[in-house]
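Dear colleagues,

As part of the handover before I leave the project, I'm documenting each prediction I ran so the next person doesn't have to rerun anything. This entry is a single chain, and its sequence is reproduced below.
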Amino acid sequence: MEQEKLKAKILLEALPYIRQFYGRTVVIKYGGHAMIDEKLKQSFALNVILLKYIGLNPIIVHGGGPQIGNMLKQLNIPTQFREGMRVTDAATMDVVEMVLVGKVNKEIVNLINLNGGKAVGLSGKDGFLLRAEKFQLVISKKDAPPEIIDVGKVGRVVEVNTALIYSLQEKGFIPIIAPVGVDDQGETYNINADFVASAVASSLKAAKLILLTDVPGIMDDREKVISSLTKKEAIYFMDQGVIKGGMIPKVKCCLEALEAGVEKTHIVDGRIENSIILEMFTKAGIGTEIVPS
């Protein structure tokens, strides 16, 4: 009986959050260990389906770096990274598109549909969903002009076709987006999934942007999770070197989304089962939220 009472208490704790976000859009970047571990994959699918059933509008943007790396290795295509970005020549771009759009995307769609959801897989090419342009990697130097590095077919989002997303949401579908974009000349680009998720959330003025990662959240200088940060505090911690390494681009994605009108952003440990539900519908949460003020 005590266990049943606890379940009821948890449901009641979630009620204010369900009411607050009913009918609102939540953009989730899906990547890391949560895409590999079978138990976590199942948990993720059920979390997303639950969001839809209780009246929210989840949108999933997924990565697939390890899967791309494995396929490139099998095909004996060398991989090079600059500043954490995969240098993407024509052959690599073909593999990226094949893996992200043809394999990973459809696996996620299938997983959600088999568990009772209604998912539709999309790439940025579908209906010009993600209009892109070539990304210029610029490295600043103290005593020399900035260095511009050509990373090939790597792009950035310049426009999101929100009408396509809205039409799918109205019919009850969950959009699953592969981070492949296209420019006005039909050129295909590989785009970082975090930045795609931020661009989609920004264009839709989403209630939340959630980035699933393989770390507990943003850590302070004592290696403890910071549960909440304002924009101003996040910028300060980056300047002070508390936020560093691979966390910097994730935080920048969150800041750009907040600047564009997204209400809250979250960096959450995707290695924890039911991490989305725990972050959204419990008072304590499990990761780091970044809020406007």
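The CA atoms of residues 222 and 242 lie 10 Å apart. The chain has one domain: 24-227+240-291.

All the best with the project,
I.
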